[in-house]
Design goal:
The structure is a homotetramer of 274-residue chains. Chain A is α/β, with parallel strands linked by helices. Chain A has helices at 44-57, 84-93, 108-111, 128-136, 151-163, 191-198, 207-211, 217-227, 253-266; strands spanning 20-22, 25-27, 33-37, 61-63, 97-101, 117-120, 141-144, 169-173, 203-205, 231-235. Chain A has an eight-stranded parallel sheet with strand order 9-8-7-6-5-4-3-10. A two-stranded antiparallel ribbon of chain A has the order 1-2.
């Protein structure tokens, strides 16, 4: 991986670790951090219900998108800037850190003062002008791997953000596109230890997009822990069957609670805390 | 392909064809249109030399990028807005239509008055907010297939532009990412007749990115013609070995002239004009 | 492609060409050779009807499988050795060269005296013990590319046959497996000129398996010719809708006749004879 | 997965489990079974050293190939039938179950009386005539997934063996071919729980071929356990740097011992025994 030489993402020695810190939590330093929430903000009620439930179950960061990049322009595109007060309500009524997706440089100014953490989705991993803009901020950001990005390309996308001076980057493996159709994507579980060899940045896994099936989210999450991931990014919805997007891969609240219970019991065996 | 039902990109009957018109030329209506030029504007001299040569050889549209999306932030990122006067010089000194890549909504206002046609690159096919902005203009646009996009996803990306009211879209097959590494990408040649079955929009082929090897550009171009493409998007550089990007896949001027001679002789056998 | 050094398949200079000869025809030496016939021998009537029709339309070699490698054991597995008299009837009643698939070393002795040419299917490209057995014969053989084989692996599979002393190998590109599902496989059209750069062996294309759709077979065949292929391997069935296997990708006889007419008109423009 | 209807591999209800039994061990019934050994039998000393070491570390089954399917005919093809006495020595000097690869129907009679368990490699998953022959035996067999096989195709390959009356089949996920090149293949970890949903057969994982890098074998193995696998197939060599094949992915003996220690500590947390 020659292109990584002299890069800022490169791991310099086995102990070289960057922890991404946000509002009292630290990702990548011996913790297993769960980011959870619905695919999209749909209504205040749906969002608050999800937030309170994931907080109660032990998640520390709440995910919810206002702007949704959808394959078809005729699908639900997200509630947009109208949802900002809903995110504000989450911050008031819970102790969760609030994270949301930014998918255009035009949206960045709208979001930056209202959320704690940004997410760059798989479709935007190669939107280098967006990465440059995010690199100018000092906000923690979850960068998801492009669905056809090699590890080298993924790390060089992160390099765009670090090169701008923002080192608060969490890498997220979320499955790659292959010929297999039983799962929505193919979870490249070995990306986790491979990235740990190559970079000092924290690495989390999105079991929801990787599998595209709620029945596979729990084994995917356990495999992520076992492979050395620093956390998860999970879709949870109070009523998956009514979700406006991605409902088939969201966990309902009791299933998420069950998974969190299982994970809490397993985490110490892998030398981490939760 | 259920998601195409009720879409604007869908072909309604076998004779349903949209020609994309620009400054006296028409793409998709029985012509074989060659878009040619260097990967990037590097200097006025390099750009003008390339432009005059491709015009002389029979190309009608000149391609040259000011902004380059590169895998690494440490690679040449394009000359940027400083190159706009160079594109103006092309328009003065030749009869070529000038086309360039737009890769961020932030750049669109800079480019829109200075070029005749926009290009949306493979990395940006899923930048739906950019597609929406381009859909608000009435500029002809070449939309390149994402390197891991299915034909359905490709057509739905075009739908974002059409849904905004801009029907001037030329689809460009440029190779998809597979396990094969001899070529940079795998030219999905059957995407051409498949798209012709599914949509009324014109379809061209980029043999340069598809192959990533100048030695394969000529057979790729002939195959595109034979498969029913409406034209080509080809990289040509006066000195490929000195190019700041993608030199290994660019044709030098004599090779491009030779290819154009061969294509002119073949085009009538496929019922087209050039 | 280091592994090709010192191989027998490697092209030593631009003029290094091996023609595969069989019963008066020569593949790879300026001709465009069409191998055509049904996926499988189903009955004497179906097979003879197909054979006479493809001969009349200009095909020189007849393809028809007795043994079929099917994804499910519960699908039609081919008529087996019972069909040998049917192949004998073809040889009596036509001037066609008869080709069939060998998919196990156990079948080779049954087939070797009854056909003129062997085919090794995509699923068997990595059956190296079979390749070694075929290498011990002196029969012409069509070796199809494995659906996930790189060009290097494909050439090294051919090397197994050449290493045994049998140089009568025709390579056949038949599409590779990718994420795209509109076509059955992705025709890697640039494999044709790439193989022509790397090896002295003839290269043909199977447009039927590559596309998996009869509507795409004609453009695929023209693209193969334009890319430099030495011929085609095409599925033709008197009644595709009644075929016991692969009917959706077979041409009916009138469509095949039409295609052959078009190809005959195009072949001279590409410097070949038919 | 329509093709699985009425198949023998299909899981009929959540409790439907088939345990594969061999010489006192049982795979798939609450145990985590480790199959370990060198890629190939190279010499009596190398093989015995490896066997004794893996037995001491806790492996129950010994893997070692006599016949090797290699990409190039000029690479080491295995010691062949000459190695049978070496396998006999393993059975005398240890309590290990001995497993080896069968890659041609021609080899089956040579092997069947000398080993306890057969392996069908990734390249042979589509060699249906071989699967039929193995289906006629009553030997336990490890069937590895083809490198480009969907889960449905993989299960239907197993169906060939079950349809012959042999239900002693262990499925092995060993990585699929994708665009990523950092790892030799992409370990499709979610194949494990997906197969567990679809079939009653046991499922193990080959972390060595999946990763192609000894540094990733331990995290891959832990992920396999966490995802619900019934065991592992691991390459171990006394001197990986001198191995005649696949040395870069083999564990040396101390590393294997370390991994076994870690796994023994983790297995109970996943409700299994070792």
């Amino acid at each position: 991986l020659n292109a990584l030489k002299n890069s800022k993402v490169r791991k310099l020695d086995p102990d070289h670790i960057t922890a991404v810190r946000c509002d009292g939590i630290s990702i990548g330093e011996g913790t297993f951090t769960v980011v959870a929430g619905p695919c999209a903000v749909e209504s205040e009620e749906q969002t608050l219900t999800a937030a309170k439930a994931v907080e109660k179950a032990g998640a520390r960061i709440f995910r919810a998108s206002l702007f949704k990049p959808r394959t078809s322009p005729h699908s639900f595109q997200g509630i947009g800037a109208e949802g900002i007060p809903i995110l504000a309500a989450i911050k008031e009524e819970t102790n969760l850190i609030v994270e949301t997706e930014v998918l255009s440089p035009l949206h960045l100014p709208l979001l930056i003062d209202h959320v704690d953490m940004l997410r760059i989705g798989s479709r935007s991993m190669r939107s280098y002008e967006l990465l440059k803009e995010v690199g100018k901020t000092r906000m923690p950001v979850i960068l998801k791997r492009g669905m056809s990005a090699t590890l080298e390309e993924f790390l060089l996308a992160a390099e765009y953000i670090l090169a701008g001076g923002n080192e608060q980057v969490v890498l997220c493996e979320r499955g790659i596109r292959t010929f297999e159709t039983y799962t929505r994507n193919t979870l490249d579980i070995l990306a986790v230890p491979a990235l740990k060899e190559l970079t000092h940045l924290p690495v989390i896994v999105d079991p929801s997009h990787a599998s595209g099936r709620s029945s596979l989210v729990i084994p995917a999450s356990k495999a992520a822990l076992a492979a050395g991931a620093d956390g998860l990014l999970v879709e949870v919805h109070p009523h998956p069957e009514e979700a406006l997007s991605d409902g088939y891969q969201a966990l309902d609240i009791p299933t998420f609670e069950g998974m969190m219970g299982e994970l809490k019991a397993l985490v110490p065996a892998f030398g981490k805390e939760m």
